[in-house]
Backbone:
């Protein structure tokens, strides 16, 4: 794998750390600004919405510059956002810093996926995308627990300062290691927008929303589920999330490896198994060992869908894939928000802390249905193309005979 992928992975590590570390530092941030925990929670919501809105916006703005330069600009924006968060004297500026940093998230992963895929041979594209996303998954194993520990020990501002430094390292890595690949000739914003008229692109994005949403339906409420149902101590949740992160790392690499060989079968297996494991989590959540194993599997199966789904969008939007790739990153965050909301509804309705697992299972199963539908439509389209292609010469020959 080219060294350029290491630079992309470092940027992804910083972005993944800043996205999730705030969840472990909310009490400290709330106390420092003298605001309630629910109000401090806007730092999570604001970031997610910024990703959804920033992915298409920043990618559209970047259509006039090279992909390398745009990646550097995005890392610069990420640095500014985290420095603002670290130095913010009031809560409003902290929230603004989170939003500024989030604007770089979707476009960085979207453009980075295109760059990563272009760096390698066609049969290794999904593996290259997975290598970049490894930075995001490792952030959940190393960056988030370490950042939480530092924030709780010496102050949350130090954590965001370190994250900003990671952004500087990522920026220097992109500048030094990523080749200056020019924009494809003749590709304009209207060409990028045209990709959204392709039903296969839309189906892939819907699979992203539903499939990864299934993961977050369960993981969003992992703390009350593990403490109230499984019987873990509150301090054990950090290590359970580390197990989840380890599953993400393994699943991401496996998904990238097998998606290059058989993309749609990989999606069938991972989405089907994810739906089954999420459904079983309503039972295994009552046992400590079984629940820990299940958490690893949810992380692995959930992230096994990421490289194939991202490559699916790139393949279907071939020729002008950058905007579609970035919007698909926003779709992951949209799925997270949707699943968290639905999970909260079933808990509020009195169905218990394990009820979101059923929500997740239904979402993952729905994504599997869309995957089967997508493949069926693709086969039908290929069949029609073969019929037209084989019929054209015969028709031309008949016309030639009639005019002769």
Residues:
């Amino acid at each position: 794998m080219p060294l350029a992928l290491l630079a992309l992975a470092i940027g992804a590590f910083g972005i993944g750390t800043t996205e999730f570390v705030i969840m472990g530092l909310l009490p400290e941030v709330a106390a420092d600004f003298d605001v309630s925990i629910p109000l401090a929670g806007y730092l999570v919501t604001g970031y997610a919405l910024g990703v959804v809105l920033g992915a298409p916006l920043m990618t559209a703005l970047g259509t006039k510059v090279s992909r390398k330069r745009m990646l550097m600009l995005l890392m610069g924006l990420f640095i500014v956002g985290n420095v603002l968060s670290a130095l913010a004297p009031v809560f409003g500026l902290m929230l603004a810093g989170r939003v500024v940093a989030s604007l770089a998230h979707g476009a960085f992963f979207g453009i980075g996926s295109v760059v990563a895929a272009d760096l390698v041979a066609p049969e290794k594209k999904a593996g290259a995308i997975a290598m970049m996303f490894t930075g995001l998954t490792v952030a959940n194993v190393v960056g988030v627990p370490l950042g939480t520990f530092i924030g709780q020990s010496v102050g949350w501002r130090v954590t965001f300062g370190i994250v900003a430094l990671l952004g500087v390292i990522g920026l220097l890595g992109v500048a030094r290691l990523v080749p200056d690949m020019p924009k494809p000739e003749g590709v304009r914003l209207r060409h990028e927008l045209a990709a959204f008229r392709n039903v296969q692109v839309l189906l892939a994005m819907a699979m992203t929303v539903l499939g990864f949403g299934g993961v977050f339906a369960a993981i969003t409420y992992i703390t009350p589920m593990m403490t109230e149902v499984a019987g873990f101590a509150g301090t054990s949740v950090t290590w359970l999330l580390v197990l989840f992160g380890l599953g993400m790392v393994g699943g991401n690499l496996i998904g990238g490896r097998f998606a290059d060989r058989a993309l749609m079968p990989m999606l069938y297996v991972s989405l089907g198994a994810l739906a089954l494991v999420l459904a079983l989590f309503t039972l295994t959540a009552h046992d400590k060992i079984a629940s820990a194993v299940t958490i690893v599997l949810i992380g692995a199966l959930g992230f096994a869908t990421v490289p194939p789904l991202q490559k699916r969008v790139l393949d279907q939007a071939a020729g002008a894939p950058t905007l579609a790739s970035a919007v698909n990153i926003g779709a992951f965050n949209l799925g997270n928000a949707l699943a968290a909301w639905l999970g909260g509804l079933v808990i509020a309705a009195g169905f218990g802390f394990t009820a979101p697992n059923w929500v997740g299972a239904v979402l993952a199963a729905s994504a599997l249905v869309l995957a089967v539908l997508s493949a069926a439509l693709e086969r039908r389209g290929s069949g029609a193309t073969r019929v037209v292609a084989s019929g054209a010469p015969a028709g031309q020959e008949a016309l030639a005979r009639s005019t002769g």
Remarks:
- The CA atoms of residues 200 and 377 lie 8 Å apart.
- Residues 355-403 form the longest helix (49 residues).
